[in-house]
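job 3f2a | input accepted
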Amino acid sequence: MLTDTKADALKRLNYISGHLDGIKKMVEADTYCVDVLKQTHAVRRAIEKLEALMLDGHLRSCVVTGVKEGREDEVLGELLELYQVANR
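job 3f2a | predicted structure (88 res):
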């Protein structure tokens, strides 16, 4: 994983973790459901951004390295698997 990607991913994960802790406290405090749902939506968006960041980093590093090493079939298989998981 690229160093910049790793640092950004960890930052985003810390944000998501903190946000989830906040949502848990909201539920414990019987916060209005709509307000909780707005926060869960924000977490989903943050996870989507994390996934996009990770995929970009993977394409720029691991995929390029795999192709250069002659592992095209393996790399394409992994990308196909990711595509299938994303569309479930």
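job 3f2a | The mean pLDDT is 94.
job 3f2a | closed
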